[in-house]
Known about the structure:
Elements: E1 12-14, E2 30-38, H1 47-58, E3 69-75, E4 79-83, H2 91-99, H3 112-123, E5 137-145, H4 156-164, E6 171-174, H5 181-187, E7 192-195, H6 205-209, E8 224-225, E9 234-236
Amino acid sequence: MHTDVSLQKGYVLFFHLFFIQTERLDDPCILDLAFIIDASGSIEPYWEDVRKFAAGVAKLVNISSDGSHVGAVKFGETSKIEFGFNEGQNENTVVRNLLNLDPPVPGSRTMLHSALEKANDDLFNPQTNSFREDPNVRKVVLIITDGAQTPPEKPDIPADKLKKRGFEIYAIGAGDAKSHYRELDMLRNKDLFFVKRPSELPTKVVDVIGPPGERGAFGLRGDVGAPGRRGRTGPAGLK
């Protein structure tokens, strides 16, 4: 996809909203979270917003060696694993790496299918990236993209492979992402969300993860989480 800063660009985020179904405080949710970040030319004007959004999410997933692990794939014309789960076990390191991701190459296309293939084959590989084949570890994919796969390749094929392995895919789009609704609807297997402007992404982290779920919820920053129907209370919010 070519960059056109005169048009409202869209992001699409495929998001595992595990936050909505977090376990109770004494039985916390643990996950392997993969950021799949679009670095095609069309996203370049909003790159800072993308990085802030990803970092904001990372701060809420309880990253540690015994807790959640995070990895990231960046894609444009080609795909590259920026860091794997073996490197993504410290919150400060993960946040710093996300905020320091190199910007997109102008004019590069959107090869989403390639990123999904790399995530399935390489990132989610227990032998190379400390991915945990454990039913108690939730499988999370978080993709930020403008929603338009550059033809003729199709992203639904690798997306289906991830789904068959037990991954839940949510989507959030911004701006023109609505014009790609059918593609997003085909890729996701959970809810689909939209925001009006890409610049809103950093402010929408809590909105996306905030609704109390069936088993408790994370609280807002510095607050106690809302009681769940099964959990006694949600985990304490970040300070």
